[in-house]
Amino acid sequence: MTSMLAIKDWKTSPPRRALSATEIVSALARLDGWKLTGDGADVAIEKTYAFANYFETIAFVNALAMVAHRFDHHPDLSVHYNRCVVRFATHDVGGLSATDVDCATQADALLAAA
Ligand SMILES: C[C@H](O)[C@H](O)[C@H]1CNC2=NC(N)=NC(=O)C2=N1
């Protein structure tokens, strides 16, 4: 069993690469509510999660921090009273990688019905 504190070691994984435009379009079609934002070095995928109150918002942020730690992949967050804007990009490839799509999927899974 893997500890919740285990961190992904990208050094032992195949190098990541930037997704092509076609791969980004097809990944976004499979994701719920995620959109492309920015351009060039600022490109990212982004989603706004809505919550009932501040406690729910922060609970989500804390759960997302565990995903970020596990993947060693850290989203930009805009945290508000009842919403959180999550933005994923991969600095190491200067664009979007499969890791952004995987982390977006994991973020959605945090809120999926049991
Ligand atoms: C050394 C470390 O694994 C890398 O710098 C990781 C850390 N977190 C990261 N987070 C994001 N969003 N993109 C990255 O390229 C990235 N790289």
From TrEMBL:
Record-level Gene Ontology MF annotations: 4-alpha-hydroxytetrahydrobiopterin dehydratase activity
**Sorted alphabetically, which keywords does the UniProt record give?**
Lyase
Q: Which InterPro entries match?
A: PCD_sf, Pterin_deHydtase
Principal EC category: lyase
Q: Is the Transport keyword given for this protein?
A: no
| Pfam families, per the entry | Pterin_4a
Q: Which Gene3D superfamilies match?
A: Transcriptional coactivator/pterin dehydratase
Per the record, what are the reactions this protein catalyses? (4aS,6R)-4a-hydroxy-L-erythro-5,6,7,8-tetrahydrobiopterin = (6R)-L-erythro-6,7-dihydrobiopterin + H2O
**Alphabetical list of CDD domains matching this protein:** PCD_DCoH (cd00488)
Protein EC:
4.2.1.96
Keyword match Lyase: yes
One GO BP: tetrahydrobiopterin biosynthetic process
UniProt similarity note: Belongs to the pterin-4-alpha-carbinolamine dehydratase family.
Database matches in NCBIfam families: PRK00823.1-2
What is this protein called in UniProt? Putative pterin-4-alpha-carbinolamine dehydratase
Which organism does this record belong to? Variovorax guangxiensis
